[in-house]
Specification:
The structure is a single chain. The protein has 411 residues and is α/β, with parallel strands linked by helices. The protein folds into 2 domains: 183 residues, Periplasmic binding protein-like II (D-Maltodextrin-Binding Protein, domain 2); 209 residues, Periplasmic binding protein-like II (D-Maltodextrin-Binding Protein, domain 2), CATH 3.40.190. It has 18 helices and 9 strands. Strands 1, 2, 3, 4, 5, 6, 7, 8 and 9 form a 9-stranded mixed beta sheet that branches. Helix 2 links the parallel strand 1 and strand 2.
């Protein structure tokens, strides 16, 4: 059965008490129930399959069906219009989460005690996404991530490159790699979303964290505050390969794994695929130092996986039992180990030496959020950024991003 944790209702009995009179599901453990787990991450399918098998062995009265479709957010919105929401959703802690929370899609976890077992800072991030009028815990922050620079340790050592601490250091490192005949950075901009790894890494340390709030109040614009971000992204693009817009994410992971470049600006989520392509590669990580002042540089981190329960599920009890299982220490450790992720669960730490270069940022709380998590859902900023990088029309592109923000905010 589920391992007891402080402050959490454990097992079906405790959860039955919690849900009595709360409109919980009609399916019960005694009768047997099948619940659906919907995930937006194809990378985690194998991990979820193994965890589901373990959960079902401990809870034979509950079956879990995993769905992880392509274009998951689009699929989820379509199901919302049909009134066919999954029992449990494993989604990103981004603007879509905030929008769905405001629409009343998720079950309020206030009385469950589950959020007592996770770090408050990540609970607060989700509350900010939902907004001040919807600040109840509608989701359980589970896995967190980091947007950083991945590097090939062997190449960095051969080139005598010191880990960059500020923007000037990073440009010097790129120059050193280029002078040695290496490709400094491997870009995968055929897929628009990969440009956001660079955008967030640069903007996270340059643009003030309250930008979205000020933008919505008419007190800030991309034209005024993302000018330096745009310039630095174009500067980085000069250190790419010969086909920056012709290679996608999967091929880029493989190319980097096989020595295609010295540096790779991505998140921790790319590391399992890189290692799958080349298990022998030695990797390191560091925060992209987009500030000229090293002391001002922080690690961009956010909620990569938030676990939510549908407000309309007929199997609330079983769904919450599954969430309780997921925050057991051994389960949470298995998830982050297999996914090269970080955990929001208290007392669960990522020990992989690949992350030695960024661990201190977590320990010292030198963290900043993903800027685009606070952009209006549906504005398609990844496509706008990709277009900017292709055409390099800074003023026009920033004006268009401002316009799309306003349109999507006001519709």
């Amino acid at each position: 059965m589920v391992k007891k944790q402080a402050g959490v209702f454990t097992g079906a009995v405790g959860l039955s008490v919690l849900l009595a009179g709360c409109g919980g599901g009609t399916g019960t453990g005694d009768d047997g129930a099948t619940i659906e787990l919907f995930s937006n991450k194809s990378e985690s399918i194998g991990t979820y399959e193994r965890l589901i098998e373990q959960f079902e062995s401990e809870h034979p009265e509950i079956s879990v069906n995993l769905e992880a479709p392509p274009e998951a957010e689009t699929v989820l919105r379509t199901r919302l219009t049909r009134g066919d929401m999954p029992d449990i959703m494993s989604i990103g802690g981004n603007a879509t989460y905030g929008e769905l929370a405001r629409e009343g899609v998720f079950y309020d976890l206030s009385e469950s005690g589950l959020t007592d077992e996770v770090q408050d800072s990540y609970v607060d991030m989700l509350s900010q996404l939902a907004g001040p009028e919807h600040d109840a815990p509608y989701g359980l922050p589970y896995a967190t991530n980091a947007n950083h620079v991945i590097y090939n340790k062997e190449k960095v050592e051969e080139l005598g490159i010191e880990i960059p601490q500020d923007w000037g250091d990073f440009i010097n490192a790129l120059e050193t790699a280029e002078d040695a005949g290496e490709t400094p950075i491997y870009f995968t901009l055929q897929e628009a979303w990969t440009g956001m790894a660079i955008w967030n890494a640069v903007a996270g340390n340059i643009v003030d964290e309250d930008f979205a709030e000020r933008k919505n109040a008419g007190e800030a614009t991309f034209v005024e505050e993302y000018d330096e971000v745009a310039d630095k992204m174009l500067e980085l693009l000069e250190y790419g390969h010969s086909d920056n817009f012709g290679v996608g994410y999967g091929d880029g992971n493989t190319a980097f794994a096989n020595g295609g470049s010295v540096f790779y600006i991505q998140g921790n989520w790319a590391i399992p695929e890189i290692l799958e392509s080349n298990p022998d590669i030695e990797l390191g990580t560091f925060t992209l130092p987009s500030n000229d002042d090293a002391e001002e540089n922080e690690l961009v981190s956010g909620v990569d996986v938030v676990l939510t329960v549908s407000e309309t599920t007929e199997h609330s009890e079983e769904a919450l039992t599954f969430l309780e299982f997921m925050i057991e220490q051994e389960v949470a450790e298995q998830y982050i180990d297999e996914q090269s992720a970080f955990s929001a669960v208290e007392g669960v730490y990522q020990e992989d030496e690949v992350f030695d270069g960024i661990r201190e940022y977590f320990e010292d709380d030198r963290l900043t959020s993903f800027p685009d998590h606070y952009y209006p859902a549906g504005m398609g900023v990844e496509n706008l950024v990709q277009d900017f990088l292709i055409n390099q029309n800074k003023q026009e592109s920033l004006e268009e991003i401002d316009s799309e923000w306003d349109f999507n905010r006001n519709r």
